[in-house]
Amino acid sequence: MKQHLKPVYSDIGILESCNLKCKMCKMYEIPSLKNNQLIPLKRWELFFKDLKEIAGEGFVFNIPGGEPLLHPNIFDIIKIAKKNKLKPLLSTNASLITNNIADKLIKSGLFAVTISLDSSLEKTHDFIRGKVGTYKKVLRAIRLLSFYRKLYNVQFDIGIQAVIQEVIEEEEDEEEKENEDTMTRDERRAKARLVNRK
Ligand code: SF4
């Protein structure tokens, strides 16, 4: 008997703008969409209906960006996907996940989020993501999502994805060198003492 293969996953960015300035990406240079440039929700309804027919229920619809939480209709899009029995998944840099957003995400119909976390070191993550404070926001987002997942007792996966770059250490070294160039003699001595103790 002839077997028909069905797609199981798609990755369709819903906007290209972003609030971070990552070393490996220029999406932050793309201006935000104006309201009249957004795909109307009625079109999303038709799209998800067709997708369900082609791919079947349970199809994983990943929503990346730019940063998808900047999209003014993000929660409606998730809701329509869910209504059509697809499995919506959000890929986010997590910097916009406040208490209120975490609560809404858990209740939205998503089955999971994947969050970008490039290092266990705050300095390295913030360096790659181009904005100080991003690492702390990621940890806050994970804590909040875990809290609401437990509160509402829902099945919700929190995944982590990382970008590995060869350039990181070289750039960090350069940054450190620049810092060293501006150090006073006393600061250099203090640093040398610390290094010798390691
Ligand atoms: S968070 Fe993602 S979309 Fe935004 S600048 Fe970084 S890599 Fe690009």
Structure commentary:
The protein is α/β, with parallel strands linked by helices and 198 residues long. The protein folds into 2 domains: 9-165, Aldolase class I (TIM Barrel, Alpha-Beta Barrel); 166-198, no CATH class. Helix content is 45%, strand content 12%. The protein has a 5-stranded parallel beta sheet. The structure holds iron/sulfur cluster. Iron/sulfur cluster (SF4) is lined by residues 18, 20, 22, 25, 27-28, 65-67, 93.
Question: What are the SSEs and their pairings?
Answer:
Elements (H helix, E strand, L loop, with lengths): L8 E3 L29 H15 L4 E4 L10 H10 L3 E6 L6 H9 L4 E5 L5 H8 L4 H19 L4 E5 L5 H15 L3 H13 L1
Parallel strand pairs: 1-2, 2-3, 3-4, 4-5
Descriptive terms for the model:
198 residues; alpha/beta; TIM Barrel; 2 domains; five-stranded parallel beta sheet; 7 helices; 12% strand; globular; disordered C terminus; binds iron/sulfur cluster
CATH superfamily of the largest domain: Aldolase class I
Helix residue percentage: 40-55%
Return the structural class: alpha/beta
Q: How is the largest sheet built, in terms of strand order? A: 1-2-3-4-5
N-to-C span: 68 Å
Number of helices: 7
Q: Oligomerization state of this entry?
A: single chain
**Rg calculated over all Cα atoms:** 21 Å
What is the arithmetic mean of pLDDT? 87
- Can you tell me the number of structural domains? 2
Could you tell me which ligands this complex binds, including any ions or cofactors?
Answer: iron/sulfur cluster
